[in-house]
């Protein structure tokens, strides 16, 4: 999974307070100067966006509108690729798999992250600082390295976990078996991303006014009540932000299954939608269908994320 | 004649230029200095081979890149080919990938530059796979004739006869389990090439394709009895717990080979080299026997792996590139010294394979056994075998359907049937007329 930190642009500051007359004069000058200067400031960003986002996306979309067959060559085919994609059992299976995966993994991970953030917020010792760093560390490990590392940790021969049940007379665990594979993958993702989400939530908690806790404590609330009734509602925005990023990342699940496939033959060419798109392009040389799969996936991610936002907003409106 | 200093300077300049910007400078060779030819390959110890070539060819300079092993290399190559630029002049390609790159219109015909002269230099089966009529798409380098590696010490100790037929192999599997409940006769490696090699050895010829005669027709017949019996056998062994499930080349599989957990491996001519480096505990305890046969006394053989050099259509100087593809190994004594002694390649150059230095070589890993005495006749026995122009898809299907059988969600008996169905559907979707 790849995600970027949410970037929040600072709000444009009002000009410093000045006498009313001079402010009016200044403003008239700025009206003419602003468009040119503004455009110059935006230009580098704009160029980068066009060169590395708009043009490649446009090209990929153009690719997705034609079909290439090995024997017949390339021809324009309109929406055929999309019809094929949305009726492709491999893609649909993969989608179902990541949705199931997300339904379990996302709540577990965000639950742990929230609990950790609340604990960090309540404790202010040197230990808390060290714990914050340690919890964040897996995020700093490249996903490929993390997945390889877990591949060895899960190993029957080298890993410490597989043989644990034999201590009490059980069967060794096969982490790559069909029934455990999603759990094994979910564990890697949780390991890698919990700390990251914890820090986001912890930062949000820092912004909650202390007066609120104090008032609650004065009113006789227990620490648990303060956490659940005061702090959590106060950082709802941050929680849903973390959730949206996680949902998007889960839909695009790729790195961990791609790496893990070398240990687990059960990870098929279409195990996740993104893996399927990758294999269509780079193993089967069908860049056109791969582009269509990617756009179909992008569309679904958009729909899911948007639906999530709407549901979330509605709940908030209903509450208030 | 130019002054030597001037020439030396020019040479130095070209070399630097080649290092910094291969694409920009490569074509500039011509009459003024050596032509630069870029090569992508992942052979072990290949640096020495390149140096030997450059030393013996003052007019050509090979620039070598290791663009990754197997799938990574092919992904980059296919991208560069689709993009129309960025591909090397010469690319290493395994045999099963040749038709795939031919249909992608990626490979130049080396026959136009005299490569047909090399026909008799190479093992016949290899030359057949590398060419299509008079068109030479690839120059063979190394192969993977298959034979049975087994733990001689353990077989001797428990008085289990080394299997000469697959029926005996299945019996040996039961005896091995009885001797050591933690042991398996081998592992089902989830490797399409390996399974393909076993099917080849069973006389199964599942694919047929010729780009020259009918580029839109392909033969797919994975459900012939010769193919089915292979999957039935290994599937049965897996289901009974007699064959392990570790994918080949994982740390678990290597550790199992090195700790007496697997007693055999139906492996290829390149395997001894691969194993000698990684199996330290059991070195000297292994031996090689010919592959078990389906009919007692028969002599059917198969191949797993092997590779070639191809010239891409993006080559800036196809003639020089052809020379590189033909002579990097080819007749080069220096290259084969490295190839045999350091990289442990199985040579497809007939003279090299027949040389007593190769056939008579005793391997410490096999307790002094001259294993090439077994591998060489196998390679000579290999006949015609073709691949599809979408072999990645076929192997992917074989692996995915076998994985379902491994996990118990599909009976082994339907693995090839389902693979056949999916491959035919894919081929038709790709515009091929499919015959059985």
In summary, what is this structure?
The complex is a heterodimer of chains A (320) and B (436). Helix content of chain A is 71%, strand content 2%.
Structural class of chain A: mainly alpha
Strand content of chain B: 15-25%
Most extensive protein-chain contact, per-chain counts = A-B, 25 and 37 residues
Strand-residue fraction of chain A? under 5%
Assembly type of the chains comes to heterodimer
What does this structure look like?
The complex is a heterodimer of chains A (320) and B (436). Chain A contains 12 helices and 2 strands. Chain A has helices at 20-64, 80-86, 89-122, 126-140, 143-153, 178-206, 210-218, 223-234, 236-251, 255-260, 273-282, 287-319, and strands at 66-69, 73-76. Chain A has a two-stranded antiparallel sheet. In chain A, a hairpin with a 3-residue loop joins β1 (66-69) and β2. In chain A, α1 packs across α12 and α2 crosses α12 (287-319). The longest helix of chain A has 45 residues, at 20-64. Chain A is globular and about 75 Å long. The model of chain A is unreliable at 1-19 (pLDDT under 50). With 436 residues, chain B is α/β, with parallel strands linked by helices. Chain B has helices spanning 4-20, 22-25, 46-56, 71-83, 98-103, 124-130, 152-157, 166-179, 192-201, 225-239, 251-257, 271-278, 318-327, 333-341, 350-354, 356-359, 372-381, 391-406, 415-429, and strands at residues 35-40, 60-65, 90-94, 131-132, 135-136, 139-151, 186-187, 207-210, 214-220, 243-244, 264-268, 286-289, 303-311, 433-435. In chain B, strands 1, 2, 3, 6, 11, 12 and 13 form a 7-stranded mixed β-sheet that branches. Chain B has a 3-stranded mixed β-sheet with strand order 8-9-14, with helices on one face. In chain B, β1, α3 and β2 form a beta-alpha-beta unit. The longest helix of chain B has 17 residues, at 4-20. Classes of the chains: A mainly alpha (320), B alpha/beta (436). Chain A binds chain B through residues 69-72, 152, 155-158, 177-178, 262-266, 268-269, 279, 281-285, 287, and chain B through 71, 74-75, 78-79, 82, 100, 103-104, 190, 215-216, 247, 249-252, 255-256, 389-390, 392-393, 396, 399-400, 402-404, 406-409, 429-432.
